[in-house]
Amino acid sequence: MSENQKQKQKNELPQPLRRKFLNFLVNTGIVGLFGSVLYPIIRFLEPPKTTDVSPSSVQAGKVSDLKPNSGRIIRYGREPVILLKTKDGDVRAFSAICTHLGCIVQFRADFEHIWCACHNGHYDLNGINIAGPPPRPLPVFKVNIKDDIIYVSKDKFS
Ligand code: FES
Known about the structure:
Layout: H1 3-12, H2 14-45, E1 58-62, E2 70-76, E3 79-85, E4 91-95, E5 106-108, E6 113-116, E7 121-123, E8 129-131, E9 140-146, E10 149-154
Antiparallel strand pairs: 1-10, 2-3, 3-4, 4-9, 5-6, 6-7, 7-8, 9-10
Bound molecules: FE2/S2 (inorganic) cluster.
């Protein structure tokens, strides 16, 4: 073996090791990069685990503070609820989430019923859909009154 060949072989011998090491570094970097980019994206797309925090009953103010033929939105846990008082003084509560596309409904004293502004949906004082696009009645909430205080709870049968 000539001196030139020995030198050439000497230069070539460590190359596979160096190449393997560089490939290892590059592959590790690519895996790390994908991991650091994909992990937050997957975590973002995955909805967080939540527990139902709906209370069994909420206080919704005093009956005497609610004028006849009026209504207001209250919170039942995370759910908006429309609380209304009819002209006769009857207090009622329904889910305030429109059954059409989920807008929040409101009480319209001029219509004397519940109305959804999004697509002109109408519900009567029993939460029944009477006009417009809403396909179903509003879910009913149970109302109990004790010492002028209104308590709203989920109606187990709706
Ligand atoms: S969301 Fe209420 S009528 Fe469309």
